[in-house]
User: What shape does this take?
Amino acid sequence: MNDDIQYSVFSADTVVGIAVDDGLLALQDRPVDMFGEHLPGKLTKEYERITLENLLAMASGLDRALLMEKERVELTETAWIRCFFRSAASS
Assistant: This one.
């Protein structure tokens, strides 16, 4: 193995874990509270209750996965946060 080559071993879980340890985030923090300027207005209750812990465990409780396969290919929105919450607007 070449000692000059370094690989990143950080994942979202690792970065969030460091932020939690440093007191910058809590697992019960809600993305809707962090990204208020990107919200489309009134959200469904399902989106309002999602926490960082839910997202890290891939257990948001939503009825379908978002930004998968066909949606990802057809995505024209460059602001992924806005795109995520846009699908959360209640009618």
